[in-house]
User: Fold these one by one.
Assistant:
Number 1:
Amino acid sequence: MQDRSPQLSMELNRLLLLTSFLLHVEEGHASPTRLVCDSRLIQKYIGEAKDMEKKVGQCQALPALGCPAVLPLVNFSLQQWKCKSSESKRREILCDLALLVGAAAGARGQVTQECGATQLGQLYQHANSFLLLLQTFGWEAGPWEPGCSPHSVEQTHVTSIFLTYRKLVQGKLSFFFHNLAKDLCKPGQGGGREPHYGAR
């Protein structure tokens, strides 16, 4: 019994993270397999990313950031992406998300306008939830540590944070879940057509 305790604790932590992440999904109870196998969920998150990007663009007189946000460069070569292992993809996305979470947190401390601050708060929660979620998927021993150095760029426009997040969800994250679905889902349950990369 004692030997099973750490494993049980790990499973409970994983369930808590996933429950928190998908709490607002209305249809039934969520699970890691459902997130991967139900393509409607990733489309929902893409839609939410587009909605946040649109709303922040409508905020009046957003100030330039005095301390620039350090953002990941999330554009990628689809051919090179397909050649990477699932673990390499996961770690790359984790690095991108870690930068985005830090950028959103830093910008929130500089933006006092309610419209911009509200949208930054939502983006922070979404990006941090994905960050926690992807740490529950692992193909190599040992916990993930943010010791990577992804390609990055400094931006002073708040809207750039939302553009980067939307491109990450619509690009790397969408393809990552699509590829996982091929291995984890029952025939006809998930996968479907490959996501369209480059859509605006």
Number 2:
Amino acid sequence: ALPLVFMNRYTLKSSLTQLVVRKLLPAPLLGLMSAFTVAVVRSPEFENGIEVMDRNGKVVGLSQKAGEKAVKETALSRAVLFGTTFFLPAVLTHFVERAKLAKTPHALASVRMLMITSVLAGMLPVSLSMFPQCGEIKRADLEPEILASTDETELFYNRGI
């Protein structure tokens, strides 16, 4: 809505501007907002840290750096999921409209819903598999308290969804 407000307020009426603001700009904005939402909701993991475990699953300590890495990975996967799910159907719908494959507005709406559902169903496994559920972090990248409590070179954390 915000890009449309600027477009109407500053009378940006060229067809290229309208294409960018109405069709292309919302997808990256949605991806960015999805990533921002993850960062805000999971902000306690930045501040308090998350549990870091050794190979045997024994908790070694709480790490803010592992929490930061987990939140960044989750935010990126959400941005890819929702940004792609918003962008691809818009592009495909544009080609359906140009080719006049959908004769009525109801048919076009049905095609659009089918494309959104298909892309979301296809992107969900891709998004969830971008990063492993059990993430690895090198010992050297962690806080001094954790360095002192273990000799293992690689530690693990639960990334979350």
